[in-house]
């Protein structure tokens, strides 16, 4: 078999081969060439070896990955594929062959800077990369926060800080059926919200062979096009369903002469699996990690002796927490869906592929050229007690076992439109906390403003900056009597009440609102009534972002300001004091002066530059998340934008934050950045005659 690599004007790879297996090899090859440093960092993160060259800052992550048995779970999942779906297993092996070919002799400058050479990928490595990428995606550490908040502030605090305010995951997606478009064919559009990384977390690519021809957004290091794809006659997209499918169990462990035992719900102590691993740390001594697994799952926090610095409550055993997650239980990561997705021709094909999906749990939208439409949840969510879904549960008590799997819900279209934005939609029975409804409502309202839409119109929705969640804070301002305020504060109040509530980068009013919001958050966090939750429990550092009080208040602010009572705190007084504070020293510039992009990089750039200012905010459709009370910088935002046109695939559009290449110095390393910042999209090129052939491979 043979294949060839083509490039479009943006350097995006278009791959053509004689068959699916050869095409997978080409995808692995071109990914290694374009994103070699990036995927090697991900391989190390998936194996728990990143601290060996990135330093002690990665140690807590590496320990979690080791203790959660990520690599071993990936091996199990590959073994299951080899037994039940050998074609997919062979296809993954071909991808890995291509990756290793592409990494051979790779000269990306980051390798020399880090003092590390490219390693060798194993057939299970793509599964480990996928699993580690999504290990914290379902937010199981939120259960640690709920436990902490309930213990320190009382059970009512759990609802006050619910993620219907502080959602940390997010994406937008919408489907407009043919009856609502100018062409009579559907349009599927959206933007996944992830931490913005450099290189980006999505790879624009085209995969073409006699069986299929798909353009889409791939995850570097993983074969196929799992999340966002256009196959010509059918297109699909996803958002995070916000389902709860990972459980945390408090374990009672004891050491014996033979090892470690865990107390089960039947009152019987049973042997737990145990071994030790060594984590290398650049510039420091290696760290030995005890890896324990009970019948519930791997122990990810503590152990028989608890945690360093932990003082157990009277009568409570030392802390040990086990994580139970579906791929570890079933040996299935859902990779059996990847080839059927590429081969899909109609919505029914996407639907059948979605039946095979496992993790993460997503809401899927799809449309085809025959008028078919799909709006459903895909993934595996266990049936168990409600207590499991909310907080840590005792492993030694009965009633917390898993009892099969939920059927995944489905939904339809409303007046020819479906919107998914992590809100309480079809996935509501499967989750506990969802994103606020603001983005979903705003997208639906914008789509309702006209009856006919085109693919070219969708960028205006992608870039909408209206901030509905500003209302509770502005309502507090409206309730003030002006004579009670100083003249500067009264003027600032009037200014904000007249503000259009758009978080535009060039808006000075948006900057003032953000400053007021942060001042309110900090003042609430300083209230004595909330002080018991300020000091987080002594959990590993990797969980600290979920346990910090100030960000929790920042993301839940609209709930905290509008709740009937907030632990007796005088909220009008807090807001008034914050208003006076900001009025005395208002920000001098615009929102974009401080709301700047803050992408994650494994290594600091050799040529540091000031990152661009951004429009949008956490609850805007243009979701560029600051952390109120902590920073205006945006580490999270649209990791890609796409518009799939079912009438003519070549009228589709897409863009990523940086560019197609992960190599510094490449002309395609940052050439899409101006488009991404402006809300513009690049055309999807499908005519082979318009492409430049790079090589036969």
UniProtKB/TrEMBL annotation:
Task: Give the species.
Answer: Streptomyces cellulosae
Q: What is this protein called?
A: Penicillin acylase family protein
List GO molecular-function terms, semicolon-separated: hydrolase activity
The answer to whether the entry has keyword Hydrolase is yes
Q: By its UniProt entry, which InterPro entries does this protein fall under?
A: Ntn_hydrolases_N, Pen/GL7ACA/AHL_acylase, Penicillin_amidase_A-knob, Penicillin_amidase_dom1, Penicillin_amidase_N_B-knob, S45
Q: Name the SUPFAM superfamilies on file.
A: N-terminal nucleophile aminohydrolases (Ntn hydrolases)
Q: What is the lineage of its organism?
A: Bacteria, Bacillati, Actinomycetota, Actinomycetes, Kitasatosporales
Q: Keywords in UniProt for this one?
A: Hydrolase, Zymogen
Q: Which domain of life is it from?
A: Bacteria
User: Is Hydrolase one of the keywords UniProt gives this record?
Assistant: yes
Family named by the database record: Belongs to the peptidase S45 family.
Q: Quote any Pfam family the record assigns.
A: Penicil_amidase
Q: What is its EC number?
A: 3.5.1.-
């Amino acid at each position: 078999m043979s294949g060839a690599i083509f490039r479009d004007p943006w350097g995006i790879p278009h791959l053509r081969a004689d068959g699916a297996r050869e095409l997978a090899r080409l995808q692995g090859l071109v990914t290694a060439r374009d994103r070699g440093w990036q995927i090697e960092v991900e391989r190390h993160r998936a194996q728990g070896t990143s601290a060996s060259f990135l330093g002690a800052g990665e140690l807590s992550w590496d320990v979690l990955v080791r203790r959660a048995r990520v690599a071993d779970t990936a091996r199990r999942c590959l073994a299951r594929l080899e037994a039940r779906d050998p074609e997919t297993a062979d296809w993954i092996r071909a991808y890995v062959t291509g990756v290793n070919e592409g990494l051979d002799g790779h000269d990306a400058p980051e390798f020399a800077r880090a003092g590390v050479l490219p390693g060798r990928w194993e057939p299970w490595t793509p599964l480990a990369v996928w699993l580690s990428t999504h290990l914290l995606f379902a937010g199981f550490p939120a259960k640690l926060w709920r436990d902490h908040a309930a213990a320190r502030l009382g059970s009512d605090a759990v609802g006050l800080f619910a993620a219907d305010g502080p959602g940390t995951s997010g994406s937008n997606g919408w489907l407009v059926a043919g009856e609502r478009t100018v062409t009579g064919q559907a349009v599927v559009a959206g933007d996944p919200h992830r931490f913005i990384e450099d290189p980006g977390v999505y790879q624009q690519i085209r995969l073409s062979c006699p069986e299929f021809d798909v353009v889409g957004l791939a995850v570097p290091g993983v074969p196929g096009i799992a999340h966002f794809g256009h196959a010509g006659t059918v297109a699909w997209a996803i958002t995070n369903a916000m389902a709860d499918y990972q459980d945390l169990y408090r374990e009672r462990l004891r050491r014996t002469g033979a090892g470690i035992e865990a107390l089960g719900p039947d009152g019987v102590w049973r042997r737990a699996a145990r071994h030790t691993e060594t984590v290398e740390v650049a510039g420091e001594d290696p760290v030995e990690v005890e890896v324990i697994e009970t019948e519930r799952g791997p122990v990810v926090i503590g152990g028989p002796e608890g945690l360093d610095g932990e003082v157990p409550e009277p009568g409570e055993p030392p802390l040990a927490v086990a994580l139970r997650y579906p791929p570890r239980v079933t040996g299935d990561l859902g990779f059996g869906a990847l080839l059927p997705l590429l081969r899909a021709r109609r919505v029914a094909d996407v639907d059948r592929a979605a039946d095979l999906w496992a993790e993460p749990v997503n809401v899927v939208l799809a449309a085809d050229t025959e008028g078919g439409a799909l709006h459903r949840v895909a993934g595996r969510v266990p049936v168990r007690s409600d207590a499991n879904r909310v907080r840590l549960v005792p492993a030694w008590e009965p009633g917390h076992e898993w009892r099969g799997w939920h059927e995944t819900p489905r939904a339809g279209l409303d007046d020819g439109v479906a919107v998914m934005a992590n809100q309480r939609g079809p996935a509501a029975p499967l989750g506990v906390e969802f994103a606020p409804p603001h983005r979903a409502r705003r997208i639906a309202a914008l789509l309702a403003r006209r009856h006919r839409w085109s693919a070219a119109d969708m960028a205006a929705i992608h870039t909408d900056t209206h901030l509905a969640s500003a209302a509770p804070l502005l309502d507090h301002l409206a309730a003030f009597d002006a004579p009670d305020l100083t003249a500067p504060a009264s003027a600032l109040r009037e200014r904000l009440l007249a503000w259009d509530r758009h978080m535009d980068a060039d808006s000075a009013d948006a900057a003032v609102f953000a400053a007021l919001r942060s001042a309110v958050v900090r003042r609430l966090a300083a209230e004595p009534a909330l002080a018991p939750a300020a000091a987080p429990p002594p959990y590993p550092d990797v969980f600290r972002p979920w346990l910090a009080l100030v960000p929790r208040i920042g993301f839940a602010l609209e709930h905290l300001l509008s709740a009937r009572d907030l632990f007796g705190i005088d909220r009008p007084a807090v807001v008034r004091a914050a208003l006076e504070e900001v009025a005395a020293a208002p920000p001098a510039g615009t929102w974009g002066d401080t709301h700047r992009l803050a992408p994650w990089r494994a290594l600091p750039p050799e040529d540091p530059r000031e990152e661009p200012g951004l429009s949008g905010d956490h609850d805007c459709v243009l979701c560029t998340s600051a952390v109120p009370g902590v920073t205006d910088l945006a580490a999270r935002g649209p990791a890609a934008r796409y518009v799939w046109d079912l009438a003519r695939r070549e009228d589709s559009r897409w863009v990523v934050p940086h560019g197609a290449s992960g190599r510094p110095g490449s002309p395609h390393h940052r050439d899409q950045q101006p488009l991404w910042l402006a809300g513009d999209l690049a055309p999807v090129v499908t005519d082979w005659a318009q492409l430049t052939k790079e090589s036969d491979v």
